[in-house]
């Protein structure tokens, strides 16, 4: 993992704020967040529902825009780019993994991954991506023939098949039991280790934070605590 002083951050944010308005009601989802993400780093965003984790992730991933402040990917100011530029940023640089798999039911695992590689600028071979998450024997299975954990690993393979600079995971184990969740986390861990992708993982489960280089605890739209893990625990040792 790169550290401050050796390279520039992959992503950085300054004074990020996000306000949602419904009629006359304002909801402050983010309140002045400062953040830097470094090459090859694994970061966990930890906090309860409503703390601003997903809003922050969506802004960093170009899925949402900030109300105030700035977010940068390298030299690109994400807060002032238009929809076309943000689409290009997401397509070329960001992989997303969500709690729900969003697979196309009529396509096999291989075909679901191939949908992404067909439009990527530097794609991985779809079968290689699936083998990387331990699904080499499930290439031609349809989603209905796969367990929940296997479907989530297909979703992870789809996200990393374009070889993104950043992998953003929003509660990837939220719909899974603990045993299956560990398998999914092991897949994320392996990708992070072998591809060196900067990885951000949202969770409300404090145990999962032990596998990260750095943990950011969010509450009330702010980063309330930051801590580093001198020794990350492998996913297979996590018990919750």
Order of helices and strands: EEEHEEHEHHHEHEEE
Task: Classify the fold: give the CATH topology.
Answer: Rossmann fold
The level of helicity is 25-40%
Overall number of domains: 1
Low-confidence stretches: none
- What overall geometry do the principal axes of the alpha carbons give? globular
**Average pLDDT score:** 93
CATH superfamily: P-loop containing nucleotide triphosphate hydrolases
Give a written overview of the molecule.
This protein is an alpha/beta fold. It has a single domain, classed as Rossmann fold (3-Layer(aba) Sandwich). The protein has 6 helices and 10 strands, in the order βββαββαβαααβαβββ. The chain has helices spanning about 55-60, 85-95, 110-115, 125-130, 150-160, 180-195, and strands at about 10-20, 25-35, 40-45, 70-75, 75, 95, 165-170, 200-205, 215-220, 220-230. The strands form 2 sheets. Strands 6-7-8-3-9-10 form a 6-stranded mixed sheet, with helices on both faces. A hairpin with a 2-residue loop joins β1 (about 10-20) and β2 (about 25-35). The chain is globular. The two termini are about 25 Å apart. The mean pLDDT is about 95.
Can you summarize this structure?
This protein is α/β, with parallel strands linked by helices and 240 residues long. The chain has helices at residues 53-60, 83-93, 109-117, 126-132, 148-160, 178-195, and strands spanning 11-22, 25-37, 42-46, 68-73, 76-77, 94-97, 166-170, 198-203, 214-219, 222-228. Helices cover 28% and strands 28% of the residues.
């Amino acid at each position: 993992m790169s550290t401050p002083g050796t390279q520039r951050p992959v992503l950085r944010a300054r004074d990020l704020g996000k306000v949602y308005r419904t009629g006359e009601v304002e909801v402050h989802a983010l309140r002045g967040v400062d953040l830097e993400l470094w090459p090859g780093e694994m970061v966990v965003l930890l906090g309860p529902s409503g703390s601003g984790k997903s809003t922050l992730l969506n802004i960093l991933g170009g899925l949402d825009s900030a109300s105030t402040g700035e977010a940068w990917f390298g030299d690109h100011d994400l807060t002032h780019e238009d929809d076309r530029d943000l689409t290009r940023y997401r397509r070329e640089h960001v992989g997303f993994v969500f709690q729900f798999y969003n697979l196309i039911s009529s396509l096999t695992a291989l075909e679901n991954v191939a949908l992404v590689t067909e439009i990527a600028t530097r794609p991985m071979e779809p079968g290689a991506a699936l083998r990387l998450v331990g699904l080499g024997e499930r290439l031609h299975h349809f989603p209905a023939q796969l367990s929940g954990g296997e479907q989530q690993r297909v979703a992870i393979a789809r996200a990393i098949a374009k070889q993104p600079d950043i992998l953003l995971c929003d509660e990837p184990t939220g719909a899974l039991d603990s045993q299956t969740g560990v398998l999914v986390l092991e897949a994320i861990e392996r990708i992070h280790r072998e591809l060196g992708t900067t990885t951000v993982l949202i969770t409300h489960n404090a145990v999962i934070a032990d596998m990260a280089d750095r943990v950011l605890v969010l509450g009330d739209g702010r980063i309330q605590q930051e801590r580093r893990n001198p020794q990350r625990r492998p996913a297979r040792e996590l018990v919750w």
